[in-house]
Amino acid sequence: MELTYDCPDCRTVNDVRSVESVPEVRCRSCGAEHAIRREAWDDQGLRACPWCATEDLYVQKDFPQGLGLFIVVVGFAVATVFWYYENPIPTYLVLLASALIDMVLYYRVPNVTICYRCLSQFRGPGSNPPGRFVHFDLAVGERYRQERIRIEQLRESQTPTNSPPL
Ligand SMILES: [Zn+2]
Ligand SMILES: [Zn+2]
Question: Which of 28, 78, 97, 125 has the fewest C-beta atoms lying within 10 Å of its C-beta?
Answer without folding.
Answer: 125
